[in-house]
Automatic annotation (TrEMBL):
It catalyses: 2-carboxy-D-arabinitol 1-phosphate + H2O = 2-carboxy-D-arabinitol + phosphate. The keyword Membrane does not apply. Residues 17-30 have a biased composition (Basic and acidic residues). Residues 1-31 are annotated as: Disordered. PANTHER family: 2-CARBOXY-D-ARABINITOL-1-PHOSPHATASE-RELATED, BROAD-SPECIFICITY PHOSPHATASE YOR283W-RELATED. This is 2-carboxy-D-arabinitol-1-phosphatase. One of its GO terms (cellular component) is chloroplast stroma. It comes from Actinidia chinensis var. chinensis. It is an enzyme of class 3 (hydrolase). SUPFAM superfamilies: Phosphoglycerate mutase-like (SSF53254). It is found in: Plastid, Chloroplast stroma. Gene3D superfamilies: Phosphoglycerate mutase-like. Substrate binds at R50, H51, G52, Q53, S54, T55, W56, N57, R101. It comes from the Eukaryota.
Amino acid sequence: MRQTKPPNLPLHGPIVFKRERDRETGRERGVSTNLRASVPFPAIRVVLVRHGQSTWNEEGRVQGSSDFSVLTTKGESQAETSRQMLIDDAFEACFSSPLIRSNRTAEIIWGAREEQIITESDLREIDLYSFQHEGKSKFGAAFRKWQIDAPNFIIDSHYPVRELWACARRCWTKTLTHESRSVLVIAHNAVNQDLVATAIGLGTEYFRILLQSNCGVSVLDCTPRLEDGSPYICLNRLNQTPNSPVAGSSAGRKTSKRIILVCHGSSQGDSEKTAELLLDLKVNTIVGSPKMASIETANAISRIQEATDCLGADCVPRYVEMKQMQNLDVENILQQSKKDATEVSLSSWLSGCADGVVTAIWDQSGQAWKSLLEELSNGSEEGNIIIAVGHPVAHIALMGRCLNLTKEWMGLFHLDAGSISVIDFPDGPAGRGVIRCINYTAHLGRWSIPITRSVLDDKEFQLYLYMYPKIDCDQLV
């Protein structure tokens, strides 16, 4: 999927783009980002955190780049939870927006670390000009435009979303050329959406598609290409929150239609923990691969779902429909590869697969995605929650389908065994999916591995980053 730059914002500066061809096969293998620097930069892990709940978040007011709100008691607590989650991580630098709500979050999370927090003006929240002070009350029609077509929303002769994408270019240039190899960035909802989207090559039309909750954490691995030192990107996780990943609205909009992608667990214990995470939801249907690991995970979720509504003496057990979907089974295709997908990161594994293997997975995912959307459409108007259980590679392809990408983008994502990824459909199955989270693993009793690790002597971590994919950005706008 080729992206185009928004009008009136010409691409400029040190980041340029080109489509690559694999040296062995001669085929195009994706679009890469070339970051011109005086010396090649090392592998970098960038951790993005949105600020905690602010007073204006609580009141439902449009904040934009205004600086009148502060963290609520809940917001301070969220930041403290994130501090505990990240306390053992070996960050070398922290960038923060200068706005009070973000800077206070940074102070809490950064804690007693010796390095000074770096305030970066380009991390300020999206500037909505006069709209952010009046919002719904004065600009009713404009507010509707902002809700349904944000990339083309204009206020005071400005296009806020397009300007935000230009700011992201500058932020990435500063981050990737900084001396640190593990960077914490604490900013805002729109800014962090933009930083994730531009890193993986998505344009302004993806605004509000990659959710960022209060104190939600997103992780990007940036590794240099051997030939010229420019970066490859892998989205290790998106919006891992201190709270449940299945609670709340989608980009401020209520939704009753949802697909939850559950990677089958590596143990029965993982399956049980995943089932417990989802027990507050009323799941309508569980669709799974016919492989045993997926069946066991699906059965664990079904048992807890059906038992949850039957705690009283007079209750009637709720039935959860169980189905098997052959198109979710990719393991026979994976066996065609000589590599073991469990030995290295999935993203690097996918980038090294033969084109025929990746194409077969991608083509099969198209049928699976179509079937899941049909299943979602068959539910009641009140709501329909579908859980799909399968191999991480199958779910990576499904996320690509949701985002309307092509097979070349599959190496951009990483999923762990037992993780969940949540896709909401506020406009129904015929509308665009909003990705609430990717690769959520907090329920497994781990923040995955520490988000960052010491990179000075840790050869295992250096190898892990080195093995990330040779697929990167389409166009940074």
